[in-house]
Amino acid sequence: MQIRHERPMSELEFQVRAPLALLTDEGVRVTVDEWSLRGFEWPEAAGNLPKRGSLLIPFQGVEISFPVNLRNDGKGPFLEFVDLTGRQRETLAVFYRSILSGKMATTGEMITSLDAPVDLVPMGETKEEQETGKAKTAPRSLRAAFSMSAYMLLAVMVFYLLSAGIYGKVATVNVTNARIEAHLLPHISQLGGYVDKVLVEAGDAVAAGDILVRIETPEHENALSEVRERISGLELRLQTLRERADTFAARVSEERALLAMKIDHAPPALAAARREALASFDARIHPQFQTLFETQALVQRELADIEDDLRRLRRERGRLRDAADALHVVAGEAGFVSEVAVVKGQYAARGDIAVIVEGAQPRMARGWLNQKTAAALQVGMQVKMEVSTRTGRRVLDGTIAEISAGIDPGLSPAFGTLLGVTVNDLDETEIRAELAHLMPVAMRVQRNWLTQAHAQLASVTDRVPGW
Fold first, then answer.
1. Where does the pLDDT of residue 213 fall: very low under 50, low under 70, confident under 90, or very high at 90 and above?
2. What distance in Å separates the CA atoms of residue 37 and residue 97, rounded to the nearest whole number?
3. 260 φ/ψ angles, rounded to the nearest 5 degrees
């Protein structure tokens, strides 16, 4: 025997008469009286057929709702449920089957359960509950003392908060939008090229003029290689010509030495003629040696031309080297590398940031104040700063080092007083390690009269013995 499960046909899905409601997307609530697990009949007086909404099931004074998608086949006002989830279909099926089986019934505009009666819960206390409450109540005097203590504590807290606020307004000046700033100098690529070598890393100390990144271009490299090859070829040729010139010079010296020796051994009748031959040799007009003289002169001229070409090519090589060096990113001032923004082989366009260097000067705290408070500030005033470091909250002492008027978009778009505050409690290395760039700071400037009052009080206590 084979058992096959099939869904019932649409015409076998009975419609029940029980109140349902549909809340459309326009916020209109429509009551539906006849429905089944397949869908429901849309009332004609309700207007156009909706495509979606929230289905509301009124059950014993509460409403169960979930969103539904609807579809109409165009043959009538019947709306069919589309793509109900398993949980939604099971919820609807519970009420549908309970109404069919008689476990639930319609009471007015609500579905009620016939086998789950609801008992009224009394809202007043029973006699036993009243006696239990009185037994746990503290004596009246104790309750009065507790209330008085609570009111006194609240008054002390309010007084403390108010006095602290007044003291802060009178004794200090609040600095808004304060932060730690480092002197960062972006180093950009002056001309476009490819990164040949990155010579620094983040945290390295650099001096002014140090090469940070080597940048090359194929055009410069090809031109420089061509000039170097031509220089190498001319230097080899120059060496060969110099050897030939030395050979001709040695031959000329030998020939002249032979002519001079012939004069010394010549009889008196031939001595004058041989002296004339030596003089014509020195004048380079001796007919016997014209070929030697011309060849030597030709070698000398060619040697001079090659030397001129070498000087010109060496100047060109120097110019190309200078042009290639101009591509490199060079440190503009001494400091520490904050960030390296390029890698080897990357193309750096003109104006791209390659390296960011932090200047050697220590980091400062900068803040903004309203222009109205400018008269209360002066260089040298003491400042209290609160920062949150990696080790926790810290309170640091500072001193106003700079006061200027202007606009700093990083602090405030309005015109005001700009402060520069040095940190007194940390050295340069600790500041760089603990206070990061753009770290927020809570900053308050102590008024001078408060500092003077503290100093006077300290001097009085020092003069009073036993204070």
1. very high
2. 10
3. -65, -35
Q: How many CA atoms lie within 13 A of 91 on its CB side?
A: 16
Determine contact, residues 187/356, Cβ cutoff 8 Å.
yes
Who's near 270: CB < 8 A, 6+ residues apart?
A: none
Q: Which residue bears the tokens 């499960």?
A: 5
What does the angle CA 34 – CA 38 – CA 41 come to, to the nearest 5 degrees?
A: 35
Output the CA torsion sign for 350, 355, 358, 360: negative
Q: Is 39 within 8 Å of 79 (Cβ atoms)? A: yes
Q: H-type helices in 214-362, by residue range?
A: 218-265, 268-282, 290-327
Which tens digits make up the pLDDT trace of 47-98?
Answer: 777 888 888 888 877 888 888 888 888 777 888 888 888 888 888 888 888 8
From residue 353, alpha-carbon distances to 188, 303, 360, 409 in Å are 4, 50, 20, 21
For tokens 């609500």, name the residue. Answer: 110
What's the pLDDT score for residue 461? 58
Own/partner long-range contacts of 270-273 (Cβ < 8 Å, ≥24 apart): none
Computed over its alpha carbons, how large is the radius of gyration of the chain? 52
